[in-house]
């Protein structure tokens, strides 16, 4: 433990750092969510060739405040038979782990609140606790459709945790540590991990989309499906909390992606001015947030059996194969990362070209089968 | 200077564990019991942290709170039943049971405190590397057997709950 | 420093509470939950011994990892059995599931 500024006792400095980290986390989560609400509407509008929020404030920047005010002033409509304690607790159970994840993120050199040496495991654990909140939300609404939506969402979340963790394990194998700070430091300069492990990055990107219930995996909370699933009975600020939790989770997942695959706080100028790392970290994180929004505006929604099939039949075998190959190559060619990079890039090309080809073949066979059945029925 | 924090945290965690555990056993409503069980798991994870086993504490939360509680909640929700007023089975024998429990509790307490204790606690944290080295080094074979066990359990559970009608899923 | 006996007492208390639940409750899912409490008590005792009296290589914690695996497998299969039984007769009361016929 280090002595704090002005020679404060190390224990008090540790507690103070924790308090500052918590305050920063709340601040970042709230401001990040506000920013992302505005960004989402603007980005979707631009992609859909329309204007988006324009009227409230310059360029519609104050739209989020208007939205927040509206949410806060809504009546707290509650069905009579909902289970009150669980109904009130569920948004908190979904929101709390997201806040707790901010304390291990490495914003800049020496600017991590707590450098846990099991930091990545901590983030994974917090991600798995949100599932509980969603199941409780579905149950407490006392509504068939909410229950089905909640259980479906929980099934999707726990299924996609597996490829997510497997992709993280690949990075840990190459970097040699679970600590986020050390993973960032293991990527020297421009040779960031995405050049070595692009397959793991793809797997993690897709699993992260599913873990945060973002399109194209947002079946459980889509407004046109099951009447918004487990969110049906939640109105006003309770729904706002779920909403904030989702955007906070998107930020966390984007931060993990920048730390593990894109060098975290590294960028031009950080050697001279360490605080500049925060700028690079935030910029890289928001690039991924924008990619998430771009994907949401572009791709259609997957059906529940399609997304579960994709997870268990495609992502998990690919992630397992990746781990096997990476560890074998690390043992066979110690000290050099070239074989791993080559195999990974070949895998990425195979996946990107191979999956559509497989789907096309399946579609042709399905069409032939339907055509044959219809031909038999007609004759 | 801050040595008083540890016994306070230990006392709070003990209170949490015992009261939540008793509530799991005594509460009639199953969903509340399941969530209190999750709270017990969290308190046990806190105990692990007090002992300095960080990795095991995180595994406890990940596996128990994150997965097993969700499984139990699924089980609860797929088997809805009328909540019945239950009668404690041993109501007539409660005084005898209390005497019996007290009689057992004393030797257990004596036995628990009879172990020699370490002079100073092991360094906090730093249990990831020895754990991994032991698990994949000395205990590699049990590790593989555990994987096979998990696979067998997974396949067995799926086969057990499969419906016997031949309504297949939507073809992709 | 908290004495080792304190951790062992908490572990014993949790174990007895779980055992009481297994013996007293009639709902099969609640019995599974109480079995999980007993497994947690065992884990707590193992980790306490491993951190206080064990060597540096944390063998007690390795055993705890295996207990995690076995607990997860057991809950999965146990719930599968309970759900199958529920399909036959819509009850999870272990008193009514006692007969092997039907």
Characterise this structure.
The complex is a heterotrimer of chains A (379), B (172) and C (102). Chain A is built from 11 helices and no strands. Chain A has 379 residues and is an all-alpha fold. The longest helix of chain A has 41 residues, at 338-378. Chain B folds into 2 domains: 1-83, NADH-ubiquinone/plastoquinone oxidoreductase chain 6, subunit NuoJ (Four Helix Bundle (Hemerythrin (Met), subunit A)); 125-164. The longest helix of chain B has 25 residues, at 54-78. Chain B is extended, with a radius of gyration of 22 Å. Residues 167-172 of chain B have low confidence and may be disordered. Chain C has 102 residues and is mainly alpha-helical. Chain C has a domain at 27-95. Chain C has helices spanning 4-24, 28-53, 59-88. In chain C, helix 1 packs antiparallel against helix 2 and helix 2 (28-53) runs antiparallel to helix 3 (59-88). In chain C, 50% of the residues are buried. Chain A binds chain B through residues 9, 11, 83, 85-86, 116-118, 121-122, 124-125, 128-129, 131-132, 135-136, 139, 147, 151, 154, 158, 178, 303, 305-306, 309, 362, 366, and chain B through 1-2, 31-32, 35, 38, 54-55, 58-59, 61-62, 65-67, 69-70, 73-74, 77, 125-126, 128, 169-172.
Helix-strand layout with pairing:
The complex is a heterotrimer of chains A (379), B (172) and C (102).
Chain A: H1 10-47, H2 63-72, H3 84-100, H4 119-140, H5 144-175, H6 180-186, H7 198-211, H8 237-261, H9 276-298, H10 304-332, H11 338-378
Helix pairs in contact in A: 1-8, 1-9, 3-4, 3-8, 4-5, 5-7, 5-10, 7-8, 7-10, 7-11, 8-9, 10-11
Chain B: H1 5-26, H2 30-51, H3 54-78, H4 94-112, H5 128-136, H6 140-161
Helix pairs in contact in B: 1-2, 2-3
Chain C: H1 4-24, H2 28-53, H3 59-88
Helix pairs in contact in C: 1-2, 2-3
